[in-house]
């Protein structure tokens, strides 16, 4: 027997079952539907009483186990109600209320049972007890008033509403009372309820809502009491004042007046609200005002709306970033197009008050145009010359002249004084600018002014000051010399040019020398021109100077001009043999060959052809920035005849090229011998 109990196969089963799976299967089997109990047929009174006794015992046992579960009480009472045992059901509900009188569902089921069984007085008694015990449960009040109204007891329902209102309920309760009165055409009573509610919101609620006033006004409007409705809106506007303005109130007020065809009133309401409500809170107001003007306004009214909206946008931009000068420009352009002078001045003053925080010129370049536009507005639009002068002077005082200045500001101020026929002030302003912060543009503007006034002595003095300030400025030297040339003082002009080319440092010396040479050519001083070219060639051996010198000799207009020109080319070629820039020498030879082709003989042409270099392709090694190899680069080089004579390697290269050419010809002949025979016979 003990041997039979021994396990022969102790290996684990192939399918392992966990404790979790066992519990899950047990839970799933609990949910399986049990077969319903068999139907019991009651045939006599004794069986019925026995059935009732067993059911009541079950309900009582459940209640005894847990008295606080109200659902057991409700099921018990509903079962007694189904048996028409109203007294027993009533007794069960009373026992349940002793356990938990705060349970709303219990009161509702109790009252519904009484109403269902037409026990009206009992239902009233229950509702009275419910609203007395739990007055803040709105559902009891709604059910109670609805029951009285369904029974036709309007006075009783009104009385319940009045009791409810004494508890100062929420908004919906008041509107339910109003709708109740309106159902029975009691408009005066509804109005009095609205008045009481408005008074309640004013006295009790800290922040009353605008929508209650709007509902009151619409109630009056709906019943054609337009004067009363307008009075309600006016009282609301007065009550909320300017501290708690709401756009919804003004939109509703304006739409009411629009319905009454009072368009001027509508316009006044919208403008009043737009002037006082913050712009970010008045988007709906803007929208409705725009729609109104499009429907009933003229073009001017629509433009006013658009301008006000854009003005609000610009105000927001400049408020967010006061140093956004582009936004100020747009704002000022808008204001100038549609505003009075005082408003424009106010915006300009606000704009120029935003001085750049850093004294660097790049930060002031946009800002300075605010002052310029301000001055131009005062002069051209407002016609206020005194204020224009004050604007210019204030701007000049504001600028940090020791660090930088704006020449355009000084020049505009001087031009303004000239337009006012006040020449001494204009000269004083420009003189002050040159003394405080001399600039090329200021000198040029002052000189141009004196030139227009034909004050040549003043121009000479200004040019002297200018050249003392900037002796390297070639343009100033040239302009000064041109002025003396125009005035007919050739010696002064020549002396100015001599002083100019004698300066140790010049910004554009080639332009100065060219102007001096052109001046001498115009005066037909050819020897002096040649001397100038020689002096210039002592300073630079640039190929363009040689070519210009040769072309001058060609255009001098004398018999030996060709010889002189050819001689210049010869000198230039000899001088540029040591030049590292071979392209410049090639440029010279090209110019010389063009000259010989037009004016030379066959011998001179053959000679220049022999001087022309040979263009060859070469390769050179490239290096990157870090010193590593970057490959090879092909470039063109020029080999001049004298270079070939000096370098035997070049002769060897030429012979190699000739040999290669002969080899290619012989290979071609070997490929096609018949062709060679035919060619020989031919």
Automatic annotation (TrEMBL):
Example GO BP: spliceosomal complex assembly
Q: Where in the cell is it found?
A: Nucleus speckle
- The answer to whether keyword Phosphoprotein applies is yes
Q: Keywords for this entry?
A: Coiled coil, mRNA processing, mRNA splicing, Nucleus, Phosphoprotein, Repeat, Spliceosome
Tell me which InterPro entries the record gives: HAT, HAT_Syf1_CNRKL1_C, Syf1-like, TPR-like_helical_dom_sf
Pre-mRNA-splicing factor Syf1/CRNKL1-like C-terminal HAT-repeats domain sequence ranges: 71-357, 381-534
Region annotation (Disordered) ranges: 663-682
| Main function | Involved in pre-mRNA splicing process. As a component of the minor spliceosome, involved in the splicing of U12-type introns in pre-mRNAs.
Q: Which family does it belong to?
A: Belongs to the crooked-neck family.
Under which name does UniProt file this protein? Crooked neck-like protein 1
User: Which species does this protein come from?
Assistant: Scytalopus superciliaris
Gene symbol here is Crnkl1
């Amino acid at each position: 027997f003990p041997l039979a109990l021994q396990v022969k196969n102790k290996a684990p089963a192939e399918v392992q079952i966990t404790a979790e799976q066992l519990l899950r299967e047990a839970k799933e089997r609990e949910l399986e539907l049990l077969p319903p109990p068999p139907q019991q047929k009651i045939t006599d009174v004794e069986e019925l009483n026995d059935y009732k006794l067993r059911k009541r015992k079950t309900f009582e046992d459940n209640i005894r186990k847990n008295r606080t579960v109200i659902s057991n009480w409700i099921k018990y009472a509903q079962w007694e109600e189904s048996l028409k045992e109203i007294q027993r059901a009533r007794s069960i509900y009373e026992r349940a209320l002793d356990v938990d009188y705060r349970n709303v569902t219990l009161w509702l089921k109790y009252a519904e049972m009484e109403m269902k069984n037409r026990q009206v007085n009992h239902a009233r008694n229950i509702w009275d007890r419910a609203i007395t015990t739990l007055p803040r449960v709105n559902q009891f009040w709604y059910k109670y008033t609805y029951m009285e109204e369904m029974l036709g007891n309007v006075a009783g329902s009104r009385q319940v509403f009045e009791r409810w209102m004494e508890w100062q309920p929420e908004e919906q309760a008041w509107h339910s009372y109003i709708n109740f009165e309106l159902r029975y055409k009691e408009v005066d009573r509804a109005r009095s309820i609205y008045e009481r509610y408005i008074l309640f919101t004013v006295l009790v609620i800290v922040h009353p809502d605008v929508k209650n006033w709007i509902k009151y006004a619409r109630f009056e409007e709906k019943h054609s009491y337009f004067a009363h409705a307008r009075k309600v809106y006016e009282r609301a506007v007065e009550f909320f004042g300017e501290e708690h303005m709401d756009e919804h109130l003004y939109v509703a007020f304006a739409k009411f007046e629009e319905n009454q065809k009072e368009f001027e009133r509508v316009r006044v309401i919208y403008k009043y609200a737009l002037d006082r409500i913050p712009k970010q809170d008045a988007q709906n107001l803007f929208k409705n005002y725009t729609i109104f003007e499009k429907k009933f306004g003229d073009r001017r009214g629509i433009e006013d709306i658009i301008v006000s909206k854009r003005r609000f946008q610009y105000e927001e931009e400049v408020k967010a970033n006061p140093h956004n000068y582009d936004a100020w420009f747009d704002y000022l352009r808008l204001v100038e197009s549609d505003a009075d002078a005082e408003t424009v001045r106010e915006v300009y003053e606000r704009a120029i008050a935003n001085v750049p925080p850093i004294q660097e010129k790049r930060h002031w370049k946009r800002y300075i145009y605010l002052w310029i536009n301000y001055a131009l507005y005062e002069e051209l639009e407002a016609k206020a010359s005194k204020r224009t002068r004050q604007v210019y002077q204030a701007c000049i005082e504001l600028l940090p002249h020791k660090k930088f200045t704006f020449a355009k500001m000084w020049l505009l101020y001087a031009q303004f004084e000239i337009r006012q026929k006040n020449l001494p002030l204009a000269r004083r302003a420009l003189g002050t600018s040159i003394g405080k912060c001399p600039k090329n543009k200021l000198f040029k503007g002052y000189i141009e002014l004196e030139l227009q006034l034909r004050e040549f002595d003043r121009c000479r003095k200004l040019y002297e000051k200018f050249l003392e300030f900037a002796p390297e400025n070639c343009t100033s030297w040239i302009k000064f010399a041109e002025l003396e040339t125009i005035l007919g003082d050739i010696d002064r002009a020549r002396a100015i040019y001599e002083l100019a080319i004698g300066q140790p440092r010049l910004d554009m010396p080639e332009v100065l020398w060219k102007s001096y040479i052109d001046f001498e050519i115009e005066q037909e001083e050819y020897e002096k021109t040649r001397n100038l070219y020689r002096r210039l060639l002592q300073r630079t051996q640039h190929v363009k100077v040689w070519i210009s010198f040769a072309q001058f000799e060609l255009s001098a207009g004398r018999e030996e001009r060709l010889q002189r020109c050819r001689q210049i080319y010869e000198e230039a070629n000899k001088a540029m043999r040591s030049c590292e820039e071979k392209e410049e020498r090639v440029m010279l030879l090209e110019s010389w060959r063009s000259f010989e082709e037009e004016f030379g003989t066959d011998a001179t042409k053959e000679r220049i052809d022999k001087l022309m270099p040979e263009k060859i392709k070469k390769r050179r090694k490239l290096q990157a920035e870090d010193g590593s190899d970057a490959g090879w680069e092909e470039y063109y080089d020029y080999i001049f005849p004298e270079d070939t004579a000096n370098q035997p390697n070049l002769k060897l290269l030429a012979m190699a090229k000739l040999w290669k050419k002969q080899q290619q010809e012989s290979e071609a002949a070997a490929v096609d011998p018949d062709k060679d025979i035919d060619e020989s016979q031919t």
